[in-house]
Write a structure and sequence with these properties.
single chain, 264 residues, alpha/beta, Rossmann fold, 7-stranded parallel β-sheet, two-stranded parallel ribbon, 9 helices, 9 strands, 15% strand
Length: 264
């Protein structure tokens, strides 16, 4: 099995307290990995730690990716937990549900801090150890919205587009050093991400979107992600029929524009 390649691998997952991150923790644990789990909610991390074998194979490191000044220190702590990191999975993120005309500039800054600047800072902190060993794998959990913009998600789409530019450039720089870079683009996955989406004034959306509610289960999504990572894919999409939107945008841009505008 491809997942056998994760046996005893040291894997750091951010955004691990719920949703895709939690599902990834369970999937990697079943594959025999050693885990470092990070998120803001320490109580939830402790619950998942217990479910994933306890301290013998799963350690927790609470952090907030929006606190850029603390991320280097957190990364050094993570590197010391199992003596290094083989795979860094950058899953922490927040989405948005507001029109451009209604969105405060501070909301755009928050989206960029969490979805872009946080992953960049953690990558830069972990990268030197990978370059020294000439081995490592950095995984960025993006979104299908990293490939195109949609209504109500202007800041979220911008932050995910930025991720693609950064990690595509990084891959070109470090591939010769034995380091892999993978970008994962989930579509509709059944998580509570829309409940915590930011609205125009920075408050919470507080609603479960229909697409999310009917989306792919998070555990199935995690299995697809593990397969893609094990195969060393540079970029891949996870979800249902919504994945077709990437190809409609590429080959039929005018049709895509009409389709996406109807989603208002």
């Amino acid at each position: 099995m491809l997942t056998a390649s994760f046996q005893q691998q040291r894997i750091w997952i951010t955004g691990a307290s719920s949703g895709i991150g939690e599902a990834l923790a369970h999937a990697f644990h079943k594959a025999g990995a050693k885990l470092i789990l990070s998120a803001r909610r320490e109580d939830e991390l402790k619950r998942i730690q217990t479910e994933c074998g306890g301290e013998a194979c799963t350690l927790i490191l609470p952090l907030d990716v929006a606190q850029a000044d603390k991320l280097s220190e957190k990364a050094q702590a993570a590197l010391g937990m199992f003596g290094g990191i083989d795979i860094l999975v950058q899953n922490a993120g927040v989405t948005q549900r507001s029109l451009v005309k209604d969105t405060e500039p501070s909301v755009y800054r928050t989206l960029m801090e969490i979805n872009y600047f946080g992953p960049v800072a953690l990558t830069k902190a972990v990268l030197p150890s990978m370059l020294e060993r000439k081995s490592g794998h950095i995984v960025a959990i993006s979104s299908l919205v990293g490939k195109f913009g949609t209504p109500l998600r202007s800041g979220y789409a911008a932050s995910k587009h930025a991720l693609h530019g950064f990690f595509d450039s990084l891959r070109a720089e470090v591939g010769r050093n034995g380091i892999k870079v993978t970008i994962v683009c989930p579509g509709f996955i059944r998580t509570d991400i829309s409940l915590h989406a930011l609205v125009g004034d920075g408050g919470k959306h507080g609603k479960m979107d229909q697409g999310q509610a009917q989306g792919m289960p998070a555990d199935r999504c995690a299995q697809e992600i593990l397969k893609g990572i094990a195969r060393g894919k540079q970029e891949f999409y996870v979800g249902g029929s919504e994945k077709r939107s990437v190809y409609i945008k590429r080959f039929f841009p005018r049709l895509f524009s009409r389709m996406i505008a109807r989603n208002m």
